[in-house]
Specification:
The protein is mainly alpha-helical. The protein has one domain: Multidrug-efflux Transporter Regulator, Chain: A, Domain 2 (Orthogonal Bundle). Helices cover 65% and strands 9% of the residues. It has five helices and three strands; from the N terminus they run αβααββαα. It is elongated, with a radius of gyration of 19 Å. The termini are far apart.
């Protein structure tokens, strides 16, 4: 995720369910046209669109935008590099979740086996 040092320069994200593109622009320090461009480049970023094609971002998307901003502007990644970095992070998280799930299933199966004995 975003490094704690990078969070200091950006405003705190309010406790809301949806944010307009202008709110996200201010919260992330990125212009609205850049956000629209990033939507095309990063498939993970897909805000809800309502009447008149208005975009409404959720909290997890604001955090993702901050992470993308950090990768591109502060860590010097290219768009392709940032995309690959995000995919590798998601893969690592998925692997960790899968391992935890398998471990939990093994424990539960061992409990069932004990009950059957």
């Amino acid at each position: 995720m975003l490094e704690p040092s990078n969070n200091n320069e950006l405003p705190v994200i309010p406790e809301k369910r949806y944010f307009t593109i202008s709110e996200v622009s201010e919260l992330c320090g990125v212009k609205p046209h850049v956000l629209r461009y990033w939507e095309q480049e990063f498939t993970e970023l897909s805000p809800v669109k309502r009447r008149g094609n208005r975009r409404y971002y959720q909290r997890h998307e604001v955090l993702l935008i901050r992470q993308i901003r950090s990768l591109l502007y502060e860590q010097g990644y290219t768009i392709g590099g940032a995309r690959a970095h995000l995919v590798s992070d998601n893969t690592k998280e998925d692997l960790t979740r899968t391992r935890q799930l398998i471990h939990q299933m093994v424990v539960e199966l061992e409990d069932v086996l004990e009950m059957l004995k």
